Amino acid sequence: QVNLAESGGGLVQAGGSMGLSCRVSGGTFRRYTVGWFRQAPGKQREFVAAISGSDSRTHYHASVKGRFTISRDNSKNTASLQMNSLRPEDTAIYYCAANSRTGGITVVDVENQYDSWGQGTQVTVSS
To answer: Degrees (nearest 5) of the Cα angle 110, 114, 115?
Structure first.
């Protein structure tokens, strides 16, 4: 069983920065692709960023590219999302998720390809 736990959310002013972490337990971390998703009030959950397990290839949603950076430390079973130049529209609950189906080789941005999810952490960006 794979468990994920996010940390690092909170309140930040527009233009500021915030880092999120995702601690993963269970299984072999480097064989998981890790993704970050977010859900704003009244909206569907959407893809933010993903990173492969084997070679740390990354993929971003266009709305965050250049502002957010996803990374991972396989020695610590942890993935991170560094968010810079935050905007009010980045306000959402942020979830990390793990894809164990492809051995960490692929970078996927489809929600139903992820089989384990964290509980989420709230990020609020004030204007």
So the answer is: 155
Residues 72, 63: Cα–Cα separation, whole Å = 21
Furthest CA-CA distance within the chain: 41
Could you give phi then psi for residue 105, rounded to 5 degrees? -85, -40
Mean pLDDT of successive 10-residue segments in the chain (127 residues)?
Answer: 95 98 95 97 97 94 98 97 98 97 88 96 97
Phi, then psi, of 113 in degrees rounded to 5: -85, -5
